[in-house]
Amino acid sequence: MCIKTGRDGDPPPARQDWSRPADRAELRRYVDRFRVPDVDHIALIEATAECFEFPMCDRNPLPQWTHGRVTLLGDAAHPMYPMGSNGAGQAVLDAESLARHLVEQPDPDQALRAYQEERLPATSEVVLRNRVGGPESVIDEVERRAPEGFDRLDDVIDAAELDAVLTGYAAASGASREQVNRP
């Protein structure tokens, strides 16, 4: 299977499914940019009988997840661009929150609403941050500042600036040291 992703800012494919054949000519534009030592990746792709697109897309945050005694979690609640397995990480945090609220609240309706009130704003922020590169946005910034390359990262971007981006994203995604180690 061949995997295709768009350039930054490209709109998602019109029809997002897992069985849409890829345009080999378009795919070739991307694979020609890469070199893999000791592997003829172009020949491997050309020898592949079927080639499919892999739609990487997200959705705008929903205004609510809970309707009566039905609620959403994980990708159903907040599909997002994959940045560091954050979709999976957010789903785990959703499950923990939902379970905790169901245990703490005697009324299931209140528990579902409390879960939504806790998790919806947090995941909405992660979805929006992922659209602009998430924690990997530092890579884009370094490339913008040093398009010809560099010898020392410190000459391109200050360690404090890197730390601010990464700790800010970690806090937004529930992965800060304090959040991970909470009792």
Overview of this structure, please?
By secondary structure, the protein is mostly helical. The protein has 2 domains: 1-57, no CATH class; 74-180, no CATH class. It is built from 7 helices and no strands. It has helices spanning 24-31, 41-47, 86-104, 108-131, 137-145, 159-173, 177-180. Helix 3 (86-104) runs antiparallel to helix 4 (108-131). It is flat. Residues 1-8 have low confidence and may be disordered.
Q: How many distinct folded domains? A: 2
Point out poorly predicted stretches. Answer: 1-8
Strand count, sense and closure of the main sheet?
A: none
Number of strands: 0
Question: Briefly, what is this?
Answer:
This protein is mainly alpha-helical and 183 residues long. The protein has seven helices and no strands.
List keywords for this structure.
flat, 47% helix, 183 residues, mainly alpha, disordered N terminus, 7 helices
Secondary-structure blueprint of this entry?
Blueprint: H1 24-31, H2 41-47, H3 86-104, H4 108-131, H5 137-145, H6 159-173, H7 177-180
